[in-house]
Amino acid sequence: MKLSRRKFIKNSSFTMAGTMFLPKDILHSFSFKGSHILGLQLYSVRDDMKTDPAGTLKKLADMGYKNVEHANYINGKFYGYAPLEFKKLLDGLGLKMPSGHTVMNASDYDVSKNDFTDKWKQTIEDAKTLGQKYVISPWLDENLRKNYDDLVGFLDVFNKCGELCQKSGLKFGYHNHDFEFRYSLNGKKIYDIILEKTDPKLVIQQLDLGNMYGAGGRGLDVIKQYPGRFESMHVKDEIKSSGKGEMGDEYESTVLGKGILPVKEVIDLAKKIGGTTEFIIEQESYQGKTPLDCAKEDLAAMKKWGY
Fold this sequence. Notes:
38% of the residues lie in helices and 19% in strands.
């Protein structure tokens, strides 16, 4: 049975308990060169990463990938590896991990102390150890988006997390799904509230082109509405699904250039006016192909488009 990324994220956010405390004086030495970063979200090859993370990363490196984005930080480990161990694995393959997905929940901020929990602070430190530039939260709990005041209150925590990340030389970001475009509070779409109430200097937005499509979100329109706000992007294409799609609607992702989204037009605009410097390929459904074969085709498409 296909596990949607939405369910994966929700389940993972409840299991991120416990931490591995490491020295806090490790240098953050990741260097970003060139006009943009091209990478793969490892959720695209989640089953392969579950059974053989080292072998899967080698296959991706052999394909020509230079950057990957994680979606598995649990109990202080990345795909079962301690931060320094995983960094050593990546370094040995010539891979970098400029960004990663880790859900920041309301429980990660102690209101009584007006401070983040030690667990969340360690999350930032582990990201720094790995060489990340971005710590991206890819989910917003349903309880935090039921009324306007609760949402705005938590978005202030987003801004505070941006300040926390900056102290470690990192940036905090948010990644959308579909509900941000599907639902409104006080007459405004949730996504508009998020963009209005987060400080661009503290919180970057990672725009997922595919997640929002079934809810009416269109990449070209959003980029034009909020130029300069999307430092990172999940590059996806979509087709009509034969069953229930990844967001519970009628669409699912497919190989870039094979679907109905004007992907090249969107990413070109994002590079021109969207402020986008990180383009992360993600494909969650495969139409009978293997995930690794799809990852290879996706990379070829991006290279053909000049990325």
